[in-house]
Amino acid sequence: MEALSLLVDELHYQAKPIDDSLSTAVFHLFLENLDENKRLFNQEQVNKFKEQDYLQLDDYLKANDCSFLNKYVVELEKSIAHAQKSLEALRTVPLDFSGNLKLSFSPKEKHHYSKNKDSQTTYWKKKISYELIANLTEEDSLLTQVEKTLKEEGQELKNKLIDQQLCLLSETTNQFGGIQKFVEKQFLNAFANYQDPHTTYLDRSDKVSFETYISSNQATFGIYTTKNKEGEIEIAQIVPGSSAFKNSELEEGDILKNLLSQNDELLVSCVSNQEVINFMNNENHHQTTFKVKKKNGPIKTVKLTKTVIKVEENSTRAYTLNNENKRIGYLKIPSFYTDLESPNGLGVANDVAKEIFKLQQENIDGLILDLRNNGGGSMKEAITLSGMFIDKGPISIVKTHKGRVSTLRDPYRGKVLDKPILILVNQFSASASELFAGAMQDYHRAIVVGSPTFGKSTVQSIFPLDENEKLGFSKITIQKFYGINGTTHQFKGIQPDIILPSIYDDIERGERFLPYALNSDSVEVTLQPLKLKKINTSPLKEKSANRINSNQTFDKVKKLNGKFKSEYLTKETEYALTVENIYKDVEAFQHLLNEFSEVKTEKPDFSVENTSSTKNILIFNKDDKELNEKIVQSIAEDIYIEEAFLIITDLLNN
C-alpha cells in the first residue's frame, strides 16, 4: 500500500490528499469492490465495518498499517460460507411459487444489503426460484410447457442451478492467491479509483491483459475461452495459425480441466473465465500443458508453446460502399493498437495507411472511418493517424501533473488522402478515439456523425510499484489532453456535427457519470493551427433529419431507447413470486432483446465490396473468407453506416 500511495502522490495528474474525505470515499469503493451486487455482506456487517473504519482508513494509510484488512478477509469467508450453507439447504426444501414471497427489482444505485443472515437466506431462495423459471422460459416460449418441465425435471434443474451458484461463490476463494489476495487487491483498487476512474492497481496478469488489448501482436496459445451454461470453461475459439491450431488435438467445445506451467497449476473447477485468461496470458507461462475433456468424452493432455501472432481484434480491413454514382471507402478501426515491443513499432496508423492505399486504387470519392465502440489505446497512434489527414500543425495539447503544457504536432508532412472524410462515433468512443475525432473536427477535416462520445481525455501509463516488479503495477493517469483550440473533451465528450438517434440516448453512460472523474477545463493555445474551410453542415443535417424522421428502423431505435430505460435500466417493480409472474417478466425482456436484433437495414442504398487486393487474398484462405462474408453482411445491414453513406454522398453532391 505504501508503494502505491507514494507512486500516486508522485505521478498522478491530480493526486488527492490522504484525509477523512479519502477515508469515506475509499471505504465505499472498497465495499463495492468486495461485494458489487450486495449479496454477500448484510447490513449488520456493514454497520460494524463503518463504525470501525469509515473515518480511519486515512490514519491506517499514514501509519502504513493494513492489518485492518484481515477482518474483511474473515467476514468475507464467513459470508461465502453462509451463502454456501443456504444454497445447500435448498436441495432438500421445495421451492415456493405460491406467491407468499415477493420479488423486487430496482436500478443498481438503489440496491441495498440484506438486513441480516435470515434475510440473506431468503435472498438465495428467491434467486434460485427466479433463475429456474427464467431459464425454462428462455428454453420454451409456452407457459404450459414451462410448468410441465418444472414438474417433471424441477429438482434436477434446481440442483444444477445450486451447483452453478456454489461455483460462482467459490471463484473468489479459488482464484490465484486466494481470498487474502482478492481483498488486498480490491482495497488497492479502491484507493486508486478514488484518484480517478482510470487509475488502477494491476497484478502481472492484469498488466499483460491490458497490454494485449492495445497490442498489434501477442504471444499466445491461440485459445479463447468462455464459461458455458453448466459453469464449465469451454474453448470458444482457436485462432488460425496459432500453436493450438497447428497442434490439431484441441477443438472448439473442449472443456478445460487443468492448466500446468512449470510449478504453477490451475485447477479449472469453480474458477472465473478471467482467471483462466490471466493464467494463459501470464508471461512466465510460455509453455503450458492443457488437460481437456473432449466433446466425445475422453480426457486429453496437450502441451503448447506460445507463438507471436497478429491480434485479430486489432486489425482493420477496407471495404467499398457503392451505388451507381459514388464509391465510398469504409474502414472500421477497432482500437488504437500499437507494437509495444518497439518505440518505433507499427500499429493502427500504419495499417490504416495501407488500407487507404488499397482504397485509392478503387478510386473512392470519400471515406468513412468507423470509431464506434473504440475505447482508445495508444496516444502515439492517434497522433500519427491524425497527421495522416492534415498537412502539418498541432494535433493536441497535453498537460502534466506538474502543470507543464506542451503541444503535440503532426510528426510528418503531407497527407495520405485528400477526399472528404466522415467519422462515425458513439457513446463508447473514448480516449484516443476522441483525440483523433476531435482533431479532425477542429481542423474541419471531417464531419463527425453519431452520438456524443464517452468523455475520457486523460492519458495513463503503467509503472511498477518496486524495482523487481514483485509488488505489482499501477496504471496511473499522468496527463490530460486538449484540442487544438485549448479546450478538452474530458468529462463532456465530443458533440457530433450530425447526431443520430441511439438506443443509449439519455442513459447514464460516460465519463461524467463515473465517480471521481476529472473535470473539464482549458489551457492557453501557443501554436495556432492552419484550419481548412469550415464545412457547411446545415443542409446535411436537414436532409439527414428528414430521412431519419421517415425511416421506420430509426423510429424503432427511438422507441427501443425508451423501453430499454424503463424496462431494464430504471426498472423498479415488485410482484409475487409465482411461475406465471416470472414467466411474463422474462418473456417481456426476451421480446425486448429480439427487437434489438431487428434493428437493421433490409435494403441498403449501397453494395459492399472488398478491395481488389483483399479479393486476391481471400481466394487462398477459406476461414478468412467465411468471416469476411459475415462482416460484409453486417456492414450492409447497419443503419448507421447507411446513413453515414448518404450523408457523405450529400456532401459530395453539394
Describe the structure.
This protein folds into three domains: 2-195, no CATH class; 217-310, Pdz3 Domain (Roll); 318-653, 2-enoyl-CoA Hydratase, Chain A, domain 1 (Alpha-Beta Complex), CATH 3.90.226. It is 43% helix and 18% strand. The chain is built from 20 helices and 22 strands. The strands form six sheets. Strands 20-17-16-13-12-11-22 form a seven-stranded mixed β-sheet, sandwiched between helices. Helix 5 packs across helix 8 and helix 12 packs parallel to helix 13. The mean pLDDT is 92.
List keywords for this structure.
single chain; 654 residues; alpha+beta; Pdz3 Domain; 2-enoyl-CoA Hydratase, Chain A, domain 1; 5-stranded antiparallel β-sheet; 18% strand
Based on helices, strands and strand pairing, what is the structural class? alpha+beta
List low-pLDDT spans. none
What is the overall shape?
Answer: globular
Question: Quick one: CATH superfamily of the largest domain?
Answer: 2-enoyl-CoA Hydratase, Chain A, domain 1
> Mind summarizing the main beta sheet?
7 strands, mixed
- Using the CA coordinates, give the radius of gyration: 27 Å
Strand content: 15-25%
**For this structure, what is the CATH class of the largest domain?**
Alpha Beta
> What is the residue-mean pLDDT, rounded to a whole number?
92
Strand tally is 22
The spatial strand order of the largest sheet comes to 20-17-16-13-12-11-22
Ends distance: 61 Å
Query: What share of residues is helical?
Result: 40-55%
Count of individual domains: 3
Q: What CATH architecture label of the largest domain applies?
A: Alpha-Beta Complex
> Helical element count?
20
CATH fold naming of the largest domain:
2-enoyl-CoA Hydratase, Chain A, domain 1
